């Protein structure tokens, strides 16, 4: 009730789950499994596929309106869009999105104009209230945003421009 009257009355929350996205990261023999190693011809480098890029870990203290932002590069010179599959799990520091207990919550897509390998998009997750706001922004400033509303048994999600959202399941903050 206090939160409903004054959301700023709750200074911090504890994340019940780890949240992040699926991406490819530079392959490291010490960290990554050999079967996750893929070669990118255009970049002439090895990457680990199905990597879990963590934005917040389970049991982390999250301040009201805390934001975490990360930038991701295109994989190919002719790539026209970037998909950001959103994942969660109950344990801390997952390495891969296909580990036990990791579940896909949805996907956010953003168009990537132009061509070349130097292009990128930024993903920002805002935590600490009764929802997580996830925004993907391309280099020209176009944004696709999703808000995940936490209810007792379901999540109501909407996007600002009506694109980029697949099905979402229940997400949880304490």
The total of helices stands at 1
Uncertain segments are: 150-174
* Gross geometry: flat
Give the averaged pLDDT, no decimals. 81
Structural class: mainly beta
Radius of gyration, whole Å: 17 Å
Q: Largest sheet, order of strands side by side? A: 3-4-2-7-8
Write the H/E string, N to C.
HEEEEEEEEEEEE
Number of strands: 12
| Approximate strand percentage | over 45%
Ends distance: 14 Å
Helix percentage: under 10%
Sheet with the most strands, sense and barrel status: 5 strands, antiparallel
Question: Can you characterise this structure?
Answer:
The chain has 174 residues and is mainly β. Helices cover 2% and strands 48% of the residues. It is built from one helix and twelve strands, in the order H-E-E-E-E-E-E-E-E-E-E-E-E. The strands form three sheets. A five-stranded antiparallel sheet has the order 3-4-2-7-8, with no helix packed on it. A five-stranded antiparallel sheet has the order 6-9-10-11-12, with no helix packed on it. It has a two-stranded antiparallel ribbon with strand order 1-5. Strand 3 and strand 4 (45-56) form a beta hairpin. Residues 150-174 have low confidence and may be disordered.
